[in-house]
Design goal:
With 532 residues, the protein is mainly alpha-helical. It contains 23 helices and two strands. It has a two-stranded antiparallel sheet. Helix 1 packs antiparallel against helix 6 and helix 7 crosses helix 9. The radius of gyration is 23 Å and the shape is globular.
Length: 532
Amino acid sequence: MSGKAVGYAIGKLMQLTGVILCVPLGIAVYDLETISVAAAMDNPETLGFTLTILICFLFGTVAALICRSQRNEQGIREGYAIVALGWIIFALMGSIPFVFYFIAQAGSLDPGTLILCFTDGFFEIMSGFTTTGSTILTDIEAIPDSLLFWRSLTHWLGGMGIITLALAIFPAMGVSGYSMFRGEIPGPTADRLRPRLAQTAAILWGVYALLSGVETLLLLAGGMPLFDSLCHTFGTMATGGFSTRNGSIGAYNSAYFEWVIIIFMYLAGMNFLLHFNVLRGKWRQAVINREFLFYTGLIVVVTIFFSIMLYGGDLKPTEDAYSQYRHDKAGYEQFSEYVDSEAARYESFHDCVRTSLFQTVAITTTTGYGTGDFDLWPNVGRMTLLMLMFFGGCAGSTGGGIKQVRIMILIKAGWRELRKLTRPKLVAPLRVGKMTIEEEKISNIASFFILFMMLFVVGTLLMTLFVPDFVTAISSTAACINNIGPGLNGVGSIEHYGWIPIPGKWILIACMLLGRLEIFTVLIVFRPSFWK
């Protein structure tokens, strides 16, 4: 292991982070009533962004200069170390502006307050970079625009991967590039479009930026303000889910906005290599891609089920819904009025279909946006949404979860084993479309699934120590390890994570990172033998 090779790459990544942070700093300065050095230093947002930029440039430049002599001594170990440590450092640096803001709001510097402010800031930004979308904010609309833009921008950077962006900008980092590329791109495969990884990274980011630009223009055309359009585009294309409104997309009460975001959430859940081929005119690639067909079929089937469920029956009885755990629950009469207002969303069949499709795509792609309170749905609908969290998007998408192709292969492998019980000598290669899956790859996917579910169970057990409701413990862990955002009950679609005790938040932070980097990249770096 070459520590200096890792240090050089981390230094360059810190410099890149410093450059990116200049954008929210500009917004913070623009929002000042009086533009002066004194006013900027008295403002927690400008002070936080300025100090973070200085730290990134100072430490990044020093690390790059000191470690420059061994920058090419990179291998597989160094690549994985750069990804795992890099993501932790991104979140640490990115959280500083939020920490300054939270301390200013608390008005106290006692140790307990400082620990809480740091935990909350780190949670919010880790949730952003990992495209989870879980938030500790209780009143999003009261947060300054610079911080709202920054947390949404972390979505967009983390969706395709800031290290993948760095590979496109700094080709010299590509010595251990495939390990970095493989460690950050979601899914069981990380195919190259071009012989050089820098070219592949540039193509992926190009497609990502193109789709983001189109969505922003469509939202603007519908009357959404530019600031909101950009923030919601970042959340959609990265399948993150941070919104600038307390009521998420439902706050706009616009069918047009919902349909635009449905389309782009669906596109973001696709493999971006497939986007590239389609843009080059190779439409047949989408038609024959079995994972894409499975992904689309799942969305269609679940949407039909939800539409029938919502149109054919009422929401959960008010008494049953009120008995579910919620933090700071309203009085029964007020809650009953709220249930009636939510029921009005499903008066027509079109409303039921649109809401069902929106929520199905939002959860399947792990975006997590909401247009209503799905915690009021019948239990069969709520548990179906919980199940969808584990499916996730396609491999090579910005979505989280286990990934559709892995689910397909696991189902096929299980069916093959059933056939072998009655035909022990059966030789049946496992295929996805025309591609034969190697046994080593099947073993790798099975190992990933077992580890994923083990970590989910362990996370749930630990969360039961810090939350009073078992459904909240299960769904909060599922929502964070699958990078979804909202869960059920105490962390439902209209709830937040701010009330969870500090140890519980750190458990969920670990779940977010493990889910985004797909477990192996993180676990391998924390093995003592890895550093020998």
